[in-house]
């Protein structure tokens, strides 16, 4: 009897485990569909999910599509009466558990990191709710810089410094040993965020003294360009640039005509706050001058367009700009300026950019602008402007007389061509001087960035000759409690004297790891981590706003705050999510959480 009972138990156990294995296989498919929709930013639910509906929502329809080519899932969907895995509760639970697994991995990396930096920014969503996003930056165990999305938090109509700081501090308090790890905080330049006395930076620093403030470098560059454009002629020029997009974007007929005339790109809208759009606008206008002139001439002269008096009048005004020497000169000037600042802007858009490279890139940009400030560069721009205006390469004096017919708009004809030339020279020098000066002023950081010079290879030669007193004092003042300064100085002398270690901080970190030198240079290793952790921009926060717009749309405007953060994190952390899928860890963790959450009408645990 006992043997028969044992055989029956063994058979039941085997049958149970086979069923569990099959159910877990089905759960993997449900998880894959949920991850696919989350990573793509697609909605899960449908308006009508009944059997009779032709569109039961993306989740159910995706499962049906997979089932059409998967026998295991197809049999489950057809035969299971108690658990199909398509209910709204199942969908919500899967989203939450996948998010929790990703969050757990991120929290583990944060716990193991030596230093941390925090960043925050806010925007308004489709429901006109103020959403604050926070990110945490650190260097992971592989020596790679990571910036992780920590979630959206609704501000409930309150955007004062104390309210924002409370949200940022709430994120920090969830991190173990944050008091000694938080070394940097990065926000935009708004007084609420950057105020020295009562701003968010001051409140956070009162709790975490080592959290040095960094005004976002990308925001600073935008302010530099605004400073450089604070000249009457330049302001007038950019009004005209925006006018081209306004004119053509408001009419499909005008846009079609512009394409027929041979434009390679559409007109780009300018922006008062994001100067990279004006960079594109200037570049497009300069590259399509012939097509623009042709299209505007047709509109202003053709009988077909005479019924549209407003279009004809506007076209004539824009044509006047295209024949104006002032406009063409500034078009050439700012196309050159933007070609330099645009490269810096692109570098600043990398979320893995370290502050040492950011500082070097700003200095390089400033030097390139100084080379544009010469008289030779000015004369070259005058020649290029004349070519754009259709002038021949005539001698200088004769060309000045001919320019009298295309004087800058807003300049009296009696002023003469020589006066126009002097005006353009003044604007040229003034615009560049203001940009160069603004770069120096707005990127003149506090002494914390002197620390980066300790691991700047170009400075090693001078450090071997004289001790870097100012840099070491800056390190002691800001982060002295985090380092053994005597040991660090001895290690740095060895680093400065070894040509193999004349590397930028991230490359030096990787080199020490490959060569097994981390234990031999522990304080230098920590200094590399510190420099790489300092957060120079808030580009990660701004990119999350794009995800917010894709996730919380007009048709999904009532989703809860938790669901918004869950779906946003799964889309933003898609690379990490894909890695966890590939490793297989994700599936087991989600299934375990899903099964233990509550009683399910499906067997998921082996005996």
Major pleated sheet: 5 strands, mixed
Into how many domains do the coordinates divide? 4
Mean pLDDT: 88
Compute the CA-based radius of gyration: 31 Å
Structural class: alpha/beta
Overall form: flat
Q: Give the N-to-C terminal Cα separation.
A: 23 Å
- Uncertain regions spanning at least 5 consecutive residues: 391-417
Give the spatial strand order of the biggest sheet. 3-2-1-4-5
Number of contiguous helices: 28
User: Can you give the helix content as a percent range?
Assistant: 55-70%
Total beta strands: 5
Percent of residues in beta strands? 5-15%
Can you describe this structure?
Residues 391-417 have low confidence and may be disordered. The two termini are 23 Å apart. Helix 4 packs across helix 28 (585-597). The chain contains 28 helices and five strands. By secondary structure, it is α/β, with parallel strands linked by helices. It has a five-stranded mixed sheet, sandwiched between helices. It is flat. The protein has helices at 2-40, 58-67, 71-79, 88-112, 161-173, 178-181, 191-194, 200-207, 217-228, 232-249, 252-260, 275-287, 289-301, 309-322, 325-348, 355-372, 375-388, 396-402, 416-442, 460-465, 469-479, 485-497, 505-514, 522-533, 539-551, 561-572, 574-583, 585-597; strands at 116-124, 130-139, 145-154, 182-187, 212-215. The chain has four domains: 2-96 and 573-597, no CATH class; 114-215 and 540-560, Nucleotidyltransferase, domain 5, CATH 3.30.420; 223-442, no CATH class; 447-533, no CATH class.
